[in-house]
Amino acid sequence: MDDALIDLLREDLERAGYDSQAVRGLLGPAADDARQRGVLAPARRVLDARGESPLGTLIRLFLLGDPLAGSGIDDALPTVRTAGLAELGLVEATAAGFRAALSLNPVDVEDAHLAQPARWWIISDLDDQLRRGPARPDHVMGVGGATRSLLAQAPPGETGSALDLGTGCGVVALHLVLRTRGRVVATDISERALVLARANARLNGLADRIDFRSGSLFEPVAGERFELILSNPPFVVTPRQADGAPRYVYRDGGMAGDELAAAVVRGAPGHLAAGGTLLCLANWESHWGVDGLERVGEWIEDAAAGSELAAWVVERDRVDTVRYAETWARDGGARPGEAGFERLMRDWLDDFAERRVVALGLGSIRLRRLSEVGTGGPVLRAERAEGAFSARPGARLAAAFEAAIETERMSDEEVLSHRWQLAEDAVEIREHRPGEESPRAIAFAAEGGIARRVSADPLLAGALGACDGELSLGRIADALATLLEADPAAVREALCADVRELVWLGLLAPAGR
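Below the sequence we write its predicted structure tokens.
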């Protein structure tokens, strides 16, 4: 894409006020929400009533997919004009007028590092509601739910160097620029994705901050290390022997089963600086008799050879093979009842049956390459956590990970000698029947990061009630052992185990952190 034309486009978009807040302000919340669900009539009705404006023209062209006269587009974008858009590949001529050939969306994306959402213009391929046909095999996605989830979970704070592995449209790389003092590298195996990612960097004034490179996985960064690696790779488990089915490179990395996700995990330690972090999204398979989280744990054990690692695997959802196959058969534009849809379903289900896959997990993998070279196995936690994410969960998740690494490396005596602090948003929940003096159930809950709720017996409830950072856990344990007339050694052992668990859940942390 021509850099000069992109610069002209940027000027016109700024002049028109083409951003997500302005779009919502013009359309109103109801019509804008409907538009984002693919229901476009309410937005058209609002624009008909409001009359013509540059912002309205851009909404019709790029967000509603309406054909427009070139003169109207020229009025809205007087510098780049229709001819420039056509040269950039953003519009194409049809009998009804000029239509959007690519998506040009204003997007706001949350990030724990930023006080306010980042606002970008993102060029990508058209989505289902505007595409008017199946996606092309080299389809480049815009900013979807997975990308937003990755950025929301990313650790806050400034970093010295960063890698966006599998950049797609480039939005993750744009965010990394905002938190990185030094270099940002963005890679992708798709040349078309790199073309659009470079265009987005130019359009948003960040072209000189990102080094875009072509290649598979870590090949383009051989011998390099980074303080932060973010990745939303093409992790969809796809049958390799699909009969004539297109391979969508944005979701299919060309490897069998979940091997691409395994390759990211195994390769990451060799490209992380000491203290560096990888956060990636992934899907993983559960085979007959083998839980998927166990398999991810094996990947991490492999990755830990030669370096000391901490890892946190969070499975957000688990789906059966039929639902998984249906989701991705629909994703490319096929629909039930069509021959292509039935063929895709058969290919997926035959592949799963042959390899004895019974379910698929969806979630995230967080790795930390620790400073010291260790001789033991990795610090590893793999869990299912379906609680809702809080707003901007990255800071709380990063804090829990840091605290858990510190706690896991403590002996029980060190755990007992430490003072512990209950999370600020933690609440105690007691269930009573009317008239009963004692609660029938006690639980503690917190919403920060991932929403958690933990049942507590009287011992744990008493200990958490005293965890205000003043007393060591050992003193709390001894006092409770006396109060409950329990064996002091058993109380200390139980509370040490509870503390280790609750730190991972974000309910406790060493005082003073």
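The chain has a mean pLDDT of 92.
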